[in-house]
Amino acid sequence: MENIAHNSLEEIQQQINNTWSNESIIADKNRIYNLGLFSSVEIDVVKNKADKNIYMISVSEMWYIWPFPIVKYDNRTDQISSYGGGLIHQNFRGRDENISIGATAGQVSEYFLWYANPWISGNHNSLDMTIYDQSSEHHVYNIIEEDQGLYLEGGFYKGYNHKFNFWIHYNNKITTNSELSYPVQNKYSYLRIGSQYRYDTRDIYIDPNSGIFFDIEFNHSFGFYDTYDMFDIELDFNIYKSFFSYLESVFKYNLFSNIQYSKSDLPIFKKHYIGGSDY
Predict the structure, then answer these.
(1) Which of 87-96, 215-224, 247-256, 265-274 has the highest mean pLDDT?
(2) CA 267, CA 189: separation in Å to the nearest integer?
(3) For residue 117, which of 134, 97, 137, 139 has the smallest C-alpha distance?
(4) Confidence class for position 169, pLDDT limits 50, 70, 90
(5) How far apart are CA 95 and CA 82, in angstroms?
(6) C-alpha to C-alpha distances, 162 to 13, 60, 190, 246, 268, nearest whole angstrom
(7) Distance (Å, rounded) from C-alpha 186 to C-alpha 227?
């Protein structure tokens, strides 16, 4: 609980002996809620016996440990191919760290280990890393993707609204498509180096009523063996504006753009498709 209190206090902008307002209370409440540690946050200003204002913060903690099953279903054989499970521990060690581990056994043996720390040092300096050996079905084509790799990401804030992230990602990928009768490349190996700038003024991250979210990412994938280099730029811009507060209605404008380049045809797993929840 001491670490949770430390994280919460770091987010409070109200200073002792400074004038408070409803706007400053709402801002502090949203900053604490955006930590993702609590299911509810309330702030009240009450008088003590000496007629002094007390800034009282009440929070409700969430349940942090979640086990989950993993079941692999093979559409080609119409059978369950593998069973397994995993465990995610949110707010690990009480400082908003997250760790997750899982594995499967059967026809497909897989594993993954993920760790994320949004505040490893300084002012929101972050660390995110993943080791994995997994497979998945392509969301459009009848293709199985088998992936092995290592992902490492670090980031920092400049002020409260400007976030910078940098990552390096090594990946070996094998694709299997039983429908194609002609030979196609099915083995890929690359090292992806990327960076991200994010400007975020949303009042509440998971359900914003107002604010701007701007995100731009640059990625350069250096190919090995028969894999060509790939370069892409992705932009995501959102505006949130609340209208008719009594109706709790929010207008959202979204602009999304993705530009990709390679000397050869883009691999099928790098292509984007219009439609679905992302568009």
Answers:
(1) 215-224
(2) 12
(3) 97
(4) very high
(5) 35
(6) 17, 28, 30, 32, 34
(7) 10
Cα separation, 26 vs 15, whole angstroms:
15
Secondary-structure percent of the chain, ordered helix, strand, coil, rounded to 5? 10, 60, 30
53-61/38-47 β-pairing:
antiparallel
Q: Name the nearest CA neighbour of 115 among 133, 131, 104, 103.
A: 131
- Residue 29 buriedness (CB in 10 A; 0-12 / 13-18 / 19+): buried
Nearest to 150 by CA among 185, 106, 115, 195: 115
The residue written with tokens 């430390």 in the block is 6
Handedness of CA 94, 58, 39, 245 (dihedral sign): negative
- 175 strand-pairing partners: 145
Give the β-pairing of 144-158 and 53-61. unpaired
Beta strands in 1-109 (DSSP E): 38-47, 53-61, 65-74, 79-92, 97-106
Q: Supply 107's token pair.
A: 């026809």
Indicate the helix (H) or strand (E) that contains 22.
helix 22-33
pLDDT tens per residue across span 234-250: 999 999 998 876 677 88
First to last CA, the chain: 40
Q: What are phi and psi for residue 160, nearest 5 degrees?
A: -95, -25
Question: Could you tell me which residues come within 8 angstroms of residue 123 by beta carbon, excluding any fewer than 6 positions away?
Answer: 156, 157
Three-state DSSP string of 26-50: HHHHHHHHCCCCEEEEEEEEEECCC
| HSE, side-chain direction, 13 A CA sphere, residue 150 | 2
**Which residue type does 261 have?**
Y
Q: Which helix (H) or strand (E) holds 177?
A: none
213: amino acid identity, one letter: F
